Amino acid sequence: MSTRQPGAARGGKLRAPLLFAAMAALIAIEAATTGWNGALVIVNMGLISAILALGVNMQWGYAGLFNTGVVGFIALGGLGPVLVSMKPTPGAFSAGGWGILIAFAIALVTIMAAVWLNRHLTRMKGLAILAVLIAGFFLYRAVFDPAVAAIQAINPASAGYLGGLGLPTLLSWPLGALLAAGAAWVVGKTALGLRSDYLAVATLGIGEIIVAVLKNEEWLDRGVLNVTGIPRPWPVPYEVDLQADPGFLGRAAAFGLDPVTASTISVKLLYGTLFAAVLLVLIWALQLALNSPWGRMMRAIRDNEVAAEAMGKNVTGRHLQIFILGCAVIGLAGAMMISLDGQMTPSSYNPLRYTFLIWVMVIVGGSGNNWGSVLGGMLIWFVWIKAEVWGPQIMHVVTATLADGALKQHLVDSAPHMRLVMMGLILLLVLRFSPRGLLPEK
Amino acid sequence: MDILNALVAILNYVVVPATAYGAQLALGALGVTLIYGILRFSNFAHGDTMAFGTAITILITWALQSAGIGFGPLPTALIALPFGIAATALLVLGTDKIVYSYYRKVRAAPVVLTMVSVGVMFLMNGLTRLLIGVDEIKFADGARFLISAQEFKKATGLAEPLAIRSTQAITVITAAIVVAALFWFLAKTRTGKSMRAFSDNEDLALLSGINPSRVVAMTWIIAAALATIAGTLYGLDKSFKAFNYFQLLLPVFAAAIVGGLGNPLGAIAGGFIIAYSEVAVTYAWKKVAMYLIPGFQPDSLLQLLSTEYKFAVSFTILIIVLLFKPTGLFKGKSV
Amino acid sequence: MSFLDASSMTGGYGAADILHDCTLKVEKGQIAVIVGPNGAGKSTAMKAVFGMLRLRAGKVTLDGDDITALSPQERVRKGMGFVPQVNNVFPTMSVEENLEMGAFIRTDDFRDTMEQVYDLFPILREKRFQNAGELSGGQRQQVAVGRALMTKPKLLMLDEPTAGVSPIVMDELFDRIIEVARTGISILMVEQNARQALEIADMGYVLVQGANRYTDTGAALMADPEVRRTFLGG
Ligand SMILES: Nc1ncnc2c1ncn2[C@@H]1O[C@H](COP(=O)(O)OP(=O)(O)OP(=O)(O)O)[C@@H](O)[C@H]1O
Ligand SMILES: [Mg+2]
């Protein structure tokens, strides 16, 4: 960010197409060596990573905001498919749904009362607010706890939660975006406008909290019991249905493929097409926005906050806007990821993997450049997946001359951690030697 | 008698553990705040520096133990600690030379340095895992209790026990010594004063002939020592697990910010505020309430938040402070 | 040759030059004053003399030695002391610690120098354990000057030492500065209060847009009707 050399990057106009071609070649090699199924798995998650990177790039590349709670917004977005597309648990809502809604209303009223007191009282303010908050909290718990217990008592082995609305999965994607945007509003409202590092620490906190909520609120998403069998989005079919479809079997035979391979590949291709469509629409909208007066203003603010402020721009307001939008994109990708996996496993949300890895993608791709984020997302995801294989291989080579023993065993066993080291190295090398990334901002 | 029992319960389940935890957080936050004050960036690698230092200390502890060297009633890790500190200091000095010094030279924005520290965090995290793995490790040895529950009950005849584990006592004593030494160093020695001067007004410090590389190196060494001590004490008191140390980043940062970033006194206050709130909010108050209000039989545990949400406490305090006093309770630096 | 001779300095912070062929000289034990409108480049010229600015052209000599290539720290060792216009104290350190930091490069006993500073500014002795950030504007300026004196400089450079202090304190400060000059220390000073400053100046420089507009003795500049009208308000 700090070193913005003038002039076009090396390679000029051809740089982006060449790099994307190289990326495609990497995928093709992967397909040729390990098969298309594996390659497509990487591509699909790579596309989601690209969208995640786009969201982070909106915040960092275009506004200089340091969001360290990406994992939380991804997880919150992932709640979308659970709430929208799962079947409602019979009897759960009547057992405790109202209780939970009333509890939330109590919480809201309590907070509003505290805010009101904060504005209108002069004497004994602190005490009054504290009293209201404590009373509100106990009232909330008195309503909330039995409601939760009632819901979790319903068929705990397979349900024990409210379930969803039973609506089409595609509808859950915008909901995921909305959930993430809501959380972003709360954090941004408090932490923006202060020192940049405060936002970093505040988002670190909200990320941890969201993940903790998803892990522990079983009535909501079964917590660590995981929600499985989340329906696929239209138009992606199930492999078993395809394999039972005579028309499909005929077409597969025409390509000379066996039904299992053909069905798994078709499913992945459909997912990929769907994700690519979302990605392209997002990029189109983003490019449009960034070349509009709004986008120019955003960049003006990023490049010189003080001057922009002096010109009467509402810097904090703009930052809040882009922070919320960026988080919405992240939430969208989070929802897409869950409908790709078909299950919600809250304990899998690890900040190294879901926050800081995305950061590596953005920096490597080229902060401020949307296509760079796409490239970075695909490339770093590819490297991350492959590093799992390379790590042990490298370690075997390194330890080849070592005598068998505890040390060698330890080194070989810990090889998977090599990829963290590798990501750190990549991030540091890019920041140091090519701070503008693979595809620099124009 | 019931009031005494209630008091003892509060001491046993809130005050003692929170004091030990607060001391650990305070040491961590001191490191963060020193780096912020002098090097002017938020070091996201600090949690992993703590993890690395502790890992080295554990490895040396094991080596000592297998060589049959112990420290009597005290944990062997205390003998290993200086070696852990030295190794960590070497690591961070090396990192500074290879990584951070460049960004100081080009006068990069603080947020760039913070980003760089994320890269370092990955590296150290990976390094620690390579060294010692990801499993939970308990490495406390020596005497287990300073005051054991049984002895206390027998001696006082109270129904409630009071146990003080030796690791808790060691934590508090070590932290007190370290903090006193640090404050003496900053207030009385020439090098310490030059560090404060550098933190106060870098340009004027340079004009006064203060050698910046010396100040920077000193800062890293002290930060490494604080991180290793904090990490080892935390590990002795609870257990060592690489990922938990990464997660300590939030309460440590919250403590530093709540106290006022760049202000050492604030870091200590912040550490204890966060620790006491966390423990008090996640403690089940049922027993205490039953002692205090005769005939009271609550059907819940009277626990405000389950322990899984302890991070929410740091976060909430952080947000409240940011809303009402953005520079922290003690005046911090506002760059 | 003058004790300080900074001749034909040209340079600036970035691509554009702020200073254009600017020349400043101070004789041994004399007071030279730079005046000029805001933004004229007075502070920039001071920084250039002190080596905080890369010059594209020009040369600085001190007592005959060419110091153009030296860093600010090296110039301190050569006997220059600088009091910047802003941020010239360590706010969370006590007055005494501020003075100690001023003497940081000295390896000998500097207690007598500190006594001399306290004799010069008695109020500082009173407030020696108070933090510099908690002092009044005038007291803070005294700390700043005292800090620069701790190295026993042969040339003291002051950038607007009387900024933001009351007229009475200003007169006080000027008296002290004359006292310092009497001990044989050369003084190069930027002043906003041009009249009073030129009155005590041996040499005066009027700087406009980074270039010397008028250069003469203080008295001659005061007498020049053109200078009076344009720069001294009639
Ligand atoms: N650090 C800097 N970087 C870039 N430009 C600067 C810097 N400091 C000053 N300038 C520019 O250099 C020019 C001269 O500034 P300088 O501070 O030397 O003026 P001055 O004569 O000291 O004014 P004043 O009487 O207000 O102190 C101004 O146009 C200013 O904008
Ligand atoms: Mg000036």
Concise account of the structure shown:
The complex is a heterotrimer of chains A (442), B (335) and C (234). Chain A has 18 helices and 2 strands.
Give the averaged pLDDT of chain C, no decimals.
91
Sheet with most strands: strand arrangement of chain A = 1-2
The main sheet of chain C comes to:
6 strands, mixed
Number of helices of chain A: 18
Give the strand tally of chain A.
2
Q: Would you kindly provide a written description of the structure presented here, covering whatever features stand out?
A:
- The complex is a heterotrimer of chains A (442), B (335) and C (234).
- Chain A is mainly α and 442 residues long.
- In chain A, 73% of the residues lie in helices and 1% in strands.
- Chain A has helices at residues 15-34, 36-60, 70-85, 92-120, 125-152, 172-191, 196-216, 218-221, 239-243, 246-254, 259-290, 293-303, 305-310, 315-341, 351-365, 370-398, 406-413, 418-433; strands spanning 227-228, 343-344.
- In chain A, strands 1-2 form a two-stranded antiparallel sheet.
- In chain A, α3 (70-85) crosses α15.
- Chain B has one domain (2-324): ABC transporter involved in vitamin B12 uptake, BtuC (Orthogonal Bundle), CATH 1.10.3470.
- In chain B, α3 (77-105) packs antiparallel against α4 (110-132).
- The longest helix of chain B is centred in the first third of the chain and has 38 residues, at 2-39.
- The radius of gyration of chain C is 17 Å and the shape is globular.
- Chain C has 10 helices and 10 strands.
- Chain C has helices spanning 42-50, 72-78, 95-102, 111-120, 122-126, 137-149, 167-182, 194-200, 218-223, 225-231, and strands at 4-11, 19-26, 31-35, 55-62, 65-66, 80-83, 155-159, 186-190, 203-208, 211-217.
- Chain C has 2 domains: 1-79 and 153-234, P-loop containing nucleotide triphosphate hydrolases (Rossmann fold); 82-152, no CATH class.
- In chain C, β1 (4-11) and β2 form a beta hairpin.
- The model of chain C has no long low-confidence stretch (mean pLDDT 91).
- Chains in contact: A-B, B-C.
